[in-house]
Known about the structure:
By secondary structure, the chain is of the alpha+beta class. The chain is built from twelve helices and 28 strands.
Amino acid sequence: MKLTKKAYVALGVAAVILVGGYSAVSLHYQKAFLPHTTVAGVNISGQSVADANTELLKKVNRQKYTLKDNNQTLLTFSGQEAGFSHNFKPLLEKIKKSQNGWSWLGHAFASEQTTKSEDALILNAAGFDKFSTETLEKVNADRKPSENAHINLENHQFDLVKEVYGNTIDAAKFKKAVAHGINQGQATIDLKNDYAQPEVKSTDKQLKKTADQLKTIANEKISYSVNGNDFQVPKEDIQSWLTYNNGTISLDKAAVTKYVYQLKAKYDTFDKDLTFNSTKEGTVTVPAGIYGWSISPADEINALMTEVPKGKDFSRTAVIRGSGTDQKTRSVGSTYIEIDLKAQHMWLYQDGKVTIDTDIVSARPPQVTPTGVWSVWKKERNATLKGKNFDGVSEYASPVNYWMPIDETGVGIHDSPWQPKYGGDWYKEHGSHGCINTPPGTMAKLYDTVSEGIPVVVI
Length: 459
């Protein structure tokens, strides 16, 4: 069928109308947003930038947000209360610039085009921090915090304790959830996935490794030798030294120090009374003197602090300072000098046998010859002994051929050619200022026989 002239005219008119109509609509969308344009939950289709900005600001300014934890409502607040404000205009202009008004028909049949509004958000950081802190204080007030898996050091046992999942809200997750919700215009912000989680779990390889290391160290075999006394450090003592903090194993130095001083109290011989089997008086208690040895605490503390954390069995010989009494028998051994002030007599024992003995003259009262466990700490020929006389004013200077000091005050054993006799009560009127006056011939023999360091027991 052929179209008449009128039909062609009609079609032409219709085409003009359609094209004109499409063009008119397109011109409208040159200044307005295309269909299905949504920003922050508000449909702004067909609106100008100014109109859309006004509507969005009205919406966000009156928008209320509800915090929920699953189905429980925790708090309702506004964006302004949380420290947020908006300026949509730059974002709207950016969106408008990206749209082509001639494509309105395609948009009309397309799905909703939602644009995020982060770029429109103005955040007052101080205000948001204050809101977050105050809100979390209220929300978490009666909640149970999560607990990391850890190693429990109780009663010297090292147990791996599993993590505990609590329900307190994590601060960082809270901020992220709230900011995102406000950005997207979400009326409800659910915090069900924002609990603070344990940072360390029982499956943590490092935690398991640390637990094994603690057990290894706690079961170390430490063999100790203190001047001939051999023993093992009790495991409970080793366990009591161990500390564990933030993944780090260390030793409690105060606990190690306490242990070393316990060893000193048990084994040191310096500054301790001595039970002594004397020649005439039998068993007597002799005051401590300068003769004896002691464990060096600095050396032992440092050694234990260094070696124990390695987790390996080791042997240790204690560092000893000084010299002196045999620890096992608590005696001066079998070679020593004994001076009995009551008997006014001196004996030299060598390997348990008397090799020299002689009467002596000790201090004239009220001067005293100090009792105690001493030692010959120096030998000197042709010395001059000086000091104050008995009047406390005048001074004396006595030359001697043989001089062996035994204590820290200047008392010693020496020859005394000025003494006409020895022993008995002679010392009461003719005694020394404190030294052990010895017959010259015997003193020469004694000097040649003994060595420095020999114990001298004065009772």
